[in-house]
Amino acid sequence: MTISRFQNTILEWYQKNKRDMPWRNTRAPYKILVSEIMLHQTQVSRVLPKYKEFCTAFPTITTLANASDKKLLTIWKGLGYWRRAKYLKETAKRILQHHGGKFPKDAKILETLPGVGPYTARALACFAWNAPEPFIDTNIRRVYLHFFFPRTTSVSDKEILEVAKKAVWKKNPREWHYALFDYGAMELRDTSINKRSKTYAKQSPFTGSFRSFRTRALRLVLEEPKQKISEETIKKILEELLRKEEVDYAPEAILSSLLKDGLLKKRKEFYEA
Question: Is 162 among the catalytic positions?
Fold first, then answer.
């Protein structure tokens, strides 16, 4: 498969199958970052309504930076991986305090923002400013594995990126990566392709996991009328849930992890968001 043939295959398919996403209709780095953070390990169908709700509640980095944690986590409810919401708020504060309210365009600087890694930094630079540097996620990785490593196992991301650098459609890197996303998600539905990646790791089930009980504990607080609950009450509820599902986690460990991540606060004998 030559690079030019690969580009033509992807772009011709994309012209007939492109998806319309709200975050593709903006060049605002703030709103693009919100979408990228939301889409980490979360299906597009779940992100779509939450993205709209989030951007309505927090239309600018200033409104997000000044938002209460209670409101932030209430809006985020339903997406999981709650720490992502706090990262977004911390990033908004950082942009206001250290960058004059404007997002830096340099990917290396973007990587210093809370919760922003190499992929997110380059995706943001691409979609906001059309930067040509390649990046890979699960769907994009699957495309390169399918076309360039069809019979190879344990393929490293470094090997994939070497091909990706040559393949970027310089005329419009933004549309190129949209095309790769869509091709990987819609045309290559065989997710077993990703098993050929060196970075492949099967995601453990959410039900019954430590993370699922963190979510339940946080929801208990958020769904309380005053958004606070006594330590005795929340521990009793968690103990009952753990006993029913026959899972050996300690309520104290669950609450401690939420406190450590700043998702809960303890005020005397009460927990609150």
Answer: no
| pTM flag (> 0.85) | yes
Measure CA 129 to chain center.
20
Instruction: Return the closest-CA partner of residue 24 out of 215, 221, 182.
Output: 182
pLDDT tens, residue by residue, 168-199: 999 999 999 999 999 999 999 998 999 999 99
Dump pLDDT digits (tens) for 2-46: 999 999 999 999 999 999 999 999 999 999 999 999 999 899 999
Catalytic residue among 12, 36, 240, 252: 36
Beta bridge partners of 197: 155
Which of 79, 33, 29, 82 has the alpha carbon at shortest distance from 53?
79
Instruction: Report how far residue 130's alpha carbon sits from residue 174's, in angstroms, rounded to the nearest whole number.
Output: 5
pLDDT at 187: 97
